[in-house]
Amino acid sequence: MVVHAVHNTRFIHKRGRMVTHLNQDAAAQAEIGQGSCLCGGIRYRLHGALPDFEACHCRHCQKAQGGPFVVVAAIEEPALQWLAGEDLLTAYRASPGKERVFCRRCGSPIFSRREDAPGRIRLRVGTLDGATGASIASHAHVASKADWFAIDDDRPQHAGSRPS
């Protein structure tokens, strides 16, 4: 198990070290919403256009969320602006090349990132405050979905990852 503290919007591993960069481009775009963790210690602002939501039914997401799936929005890192709590962000490397970032105080999952997709994160949309007007556009990893949960919408279902 590898756990890292996260203090800025972007972190990159180089020879076992964490290198951080501050996000300064987000303020120049239109705000589309704000979000927070359960305890309110982490707060953020989201800028730009709200992308499609995807429900991921993989076993890792089930374990990390404690439910049958997680709903995420893939966004560019500069779209996220931290308002408070950067020092509460902690990352857990759940599998090679992927980190799940959560609040170290309350445990709320905030986003995940993959080393093979630099500059993009998968924001947990359950952390958004207020209504979004959006809906789930597709379901991924339905081959490993919980047997006790039925997908009852007409959105596309993918056995593995959603095609790019």
Shape: globular
The largest β sheet comes out as: 8 strands, mixed
Mean pLDDT: 85
CATH arch. level architecture: Beta Complex
| Proportion in helices | under 10%
Rg, Cα atoms, Å: 15 Å
> If strands are numbered along the chain, what order do they take across the biggest sheet?
1-9-10-11-12-7-6-14
Number of domains: 1
Contiguous low-pLDDT stretches (5 residues minimum) are 1-24
Number of helices: 1
Following the backbone from N to C, one meets helices and strands in this order, namely EEEEEEHEEEEEEEE
Topology-level CATH name: Metal Binding Protein, Guanine Nucleotide Exchange Factor, Chain A
User: Structural class per helix/strand content?
Assistant: mainly beta
What does this structure look like?
A hairpin with a 6-residue loop joins β4 and β5 (43-47). The protein has one domain: Metal Binding Protein, Guanine Nucleotide Exchange Factor, Chain A (Beta Complex). It has an eight-stranded mixed β-sheet. It has a four-stranded antiparallel β-sheet with strand order 8-5-4-13, with no helix packed on it. It has a two-stranded antiparallel ribbon with strand order 2-3. 4% of the residues lie in helices and 43% in strands. The protein contains one helix and 14 strands. It has 164 residues and is mainly β. The two termini are 30 Å apart. The chain is globular and about 40 Å long.
Features:
mainly beta, Metal Binding Protein, Guanine Nucleotide Exchange Factor, Chain A, 8-stranded mixed beta sheet, 4-stranded antiparallel beta sheet, 14 strands, disordered N terminus
